[in-house]
């Protein structure tokens, strides 16, 4: 079955989420540690600025056992000494599938309906699949989640209004600066978040935009494609003084811009307002910068103030989206239950046939071939009909909302392989 353990913007502050941010290079080694946990068969790790989630498929381990083991590995691997277990949520079976579908569809995002999360989900899934970390259950359910996301986004109005965290941040820029078009923008980071912010700034008519990235080749490539100014990463601090808005969106695990960096340029700027937007987790901008005169710092959690403006408009869309999600969750649960029944069905078929063959052995001794052939044909038809009736009833029983308990009973009922010859 499916399980998910996670932490997000609803359950933990940015400071706590920082501690559980998983760098890209650590996803495979950490996932391999998860796979060492007894009965866990596959893993997909999602790490974004607003959430860290571990999706896993399991066989027979208890939900509490899986939760505790994964939490222990997370705390240990990331060197987090304080116990933050209370900030994590844990779902299994139908609730886990529903959570997966809600996340991929943008229903669970800070910006409801945002597009970025589905791309992040796809990247996480492909990355873990190519690293042989997933199994058939995760592959099927993640593919179903992408189908669900497409259906929600095309059949509801969930994407009206703000569609990314960067979009909301730029809304705040327009409220802070009287004329956004006249400001010089510096974007640090050319990943998806940085490029979405770049696109949205250009849509608002901003022309003076510079970008930088740790990889110079990537900086030059994006700058050429987007028609903006490239800055080599080693030189980007030389451009802080002339930048009115500085936005960071990288996976660096350290401050790229410190309080001292900004103190040194304040005299050059002559008390001109300067806005810092940190869309990175962990933070890229020293939090103390927000305490300096003539500066303002916005981080991911501050964006909630604007998101409330879009909430009412999307409420009806969320209700409609949940209807679609619930339908696809039910469909997925039916598939999972059917898949769980395969070993039982195989056992029933084999054992019933063996029983029939064993009972006929004695009769063969006193009957002619023609009679034996007729009896075998009759018993074969009867056995197959009985098996079909059993299988039909089994599928109905496991779809009654208590599949796990039903499967346990079914496995006990039909575990009579060693009793056939008694």
TrEMBL record:
Substrate binds at residues 48-51, 109, 114-116, 120. The keyword NADP applies. Its EC number is 1.2.1.70. Pfam families: GlutR_dimer (PF00745), GlutR_N (PF05201), Shikimate_DH (PF01488). It is an enzyme of class 1 (oxidoreductase). Residues 172-306 form the Quinate/shikimate 5-dehydrogenase/glutamyl-tRNA reductase domain. Pathway: Porphyrin-containing compound metabolism; protoporphyrin-IX biosynthesis; 5-aminolevulinate from L-glutamyl-tRNA(Glu): step 1/2. Residues 321-415 form the Tetrapyrrole biosynthesis glutamyl-tRNA reductase dimerisation domain. Keywords: NADP, Oxidoreductase, Porphyrin biosynthesis. CDD domains: NAD_bind_Glutamyl_tRNA_reduct. It catalyses: (S)-4-amino-5-oxopentanoate + tRNA(Glu) + NADP(+) = L-glutamyl-tRNA(Glu) + NADPH + H(+). InterPro entries: 4pyrrol_synth_GluRdtase, 4pyrrol_synth_GluRdtase_dimer, 4pyrrol_synth_GluRdtase_N, GluRdtase_dimer_dom_sf, GluRdtase_N_sf, NAD(P)-bd_dom_sf, Shikm_DH/Glu-tRNA_Rdtase. Residues 5-156 form the Glutamyl-tRNA reductase N-terminal domain. The record marks 99 as: Important for activity. Catalyzes the NADPH-dependent reduction of glutamyl-tRNA(Glu) to glutamate 1-semialdehyde (GSA). Possesses an unusual extended V-shaped dimeric structure with each monomer consisting of three distinct domains arranged along a curved 'spinal' alpha-helix. The N-terminal catalytic domain specifically recognizes the glutamate moiety of the substrate. The second domain is the NADPH-binding domain, and the third C-terminal domain is responsible for dimerization. Homodimer. Belongs to the glutamyl-tRNA reductase family. During catalysis, the active site Cys acts as a nucleophile attacking the alpha-carbonyl group of tRNA-bound glutamate with the formation of a thioester intermediate between enzyme and glutamate, and the concomitant release of tRNA(Glu). The thioester intermediate is finally reduced by direct hydride transfer from NADPH, to form the product GSA. PANTHER family: GLUTAMYL-TRNA REDUCTASE (PTHR43013). This is Glutamyl-tRNA reductase. It comes from Plebeiibacterium sediminum.
